[in-house]
Fold this protein.
Amino acid sequence: MRWIAVAGDVHGEIDELASLLARFEEATGHPVDLLLQVGDLEPHRFDRDLESLCMPEKRRSVGDFPLYAKGEKKLPCEVVFIGGNHEPWSFLEEHANGGEIAPGFTFLGRSGRVERFGLRIGGLSGIYNAAHSERPRSPRFEKRRATYFVRDEVALLLNGGPLDVLLVHEWPEGILEDRERGILPTLLRRSSVGNAPARLLVDRLAPPWVFCGHLHVAHRRDLSQDGRSVRVRCCAAVPGEDPEAVVFLKWDGRSLEETASLAELEALAGAGARAKATRAKERPSSSKNENAAALGEGAAP
């Protein structure tokens, strides 16, 4: 069994991401084997990387990545990620076709795919903008356009064959139902949420799993495409260690299934620990004998 995690926007807070993964391992006893991430990781190596970050200057921060890039800190598994709209794009453009940007961090590129443990994983970096996404990408780096994907990058994924997991940063169009808008944050009550090219990928490829971030709101929607089930999961943001920022799944080589949420897993683990402690108090002599037997010792006199 392999344990897979999918994380929402990190915004440089990789230590908090590591903490969420550690909490899963503590609650379940299972280390995470692979981490997928849906953009806005913000892998800044140093201050100069902030120059190509599209974000107000007062909100810019190098974050935790430098220590991970140097190997001084490590996550428990490989990270496979796409770009969002807040990234050091001048750095990521050096790996536009994908590849390892630092030990344990694999960028899928502007549009790319990899296979891990037999899972076919694809991703589209960036968000949509009608003025920029419908024009070809310039060979010259343009900070203003760097955060947006273009039509050719969408086509590359469409023509690459089936996927088991699709990562997009911005929500696909049409996954919010009208009845849901009133219970979600004001940001999602506007008439249009998501983009059409991301929804085209969902409809054409019909991957069993689709993950996105961008809006920092956890949301679930199950779709049916030509009789095939497509489960869309939108992740909350990692800063603040929101338990809904990471979705956990288990993969047995044939089926990828979602676990209970981190909050539920921790509640179950806590309940189990309390029950065990209660039993130990109620049966002290029995517990003493059981422990001795487990260590190969004789029963206590």
Notes: The first strand starts at residue 2 and ends at 7. The chain is about 30% helix and 20% strand. The CA atoms of residues 9 and 267 lie 25 Å apart.
